[in-house]
Specification:
By secondary structure, the protein is α+β, with helices and mostly antiparallel strands. It has helices at 11-24, 33-41, 90-105, 119-128; strands at residues 2-5, 45-51, 57-68, 71-81. The chain has one domain (2-128): Aminopeptidase, CATH 3.40.630.
Length: 143
């Protein structure tokens, strides 16, 4: 398995991400070439993909890093491993790669959220050293 940062829009990447995102969220709209290009061209986002030995994309993770007055923030979002590749440490490889990117960029911490029903993912994050925070997460839905 190989983890790399995606840097250009390809049909292979777009199809793989749409396949993966549909496994992560039933409500997410399909990704378009333009939206994918925006993600890849944004200096704040780093889209990581994991490929198997046949170069098939089997997982993805987005690392967002942005400056605020108190320092560089790093946030992991949209971690998804293809159902057929689960249990093969793909999520771990993606997460470790993201943590190293954040560390080398100067971030002191990396945040993420994970729904409680994602038992395997929550076990992975604990094993990697993520600590559960005593905080509230709020969402405001813009209509």
């Amino acid at each position: 398995m190989q983890v790399e940062e995606a840097t250009m829009v390809t049909g292979d990447l777009l199809a793989a991400l749409n396949r993966l995102v549909s496994q992560l969220s039933a409500s997410a709209a399909p990704l378009t070439e333009d939206r994918l290009r925006e993600v890849l061209e944004s200096p704040a986002t780093h889209l990581l993909v994991a490929r198997d030995d046949r170069s098939t994309i089997i997982g993805s993770l987005t690392l967002a890093m942005f400056r605020i007055p108190t320092g560089l923030r790093a946030w992991i979002e949209d971690v998804v491993v293809d159902e057929a590749a689960r249990g093969q440490r793909v999520g771990e490889a993606l997460s470790r790669h993201a943590l190293e990117m954040a560390r080398s960029s100067g971030a002191r911490t990396v945040e993420l959220t994970s729904r409680p029903e994602r038992v395997a993912a929550n076990r992975l994050y604990a094993r990697l050293g993520f600590a559960r925070r005593d905080t509230n997460v709020y969402r405001y839905t813009l209509s």
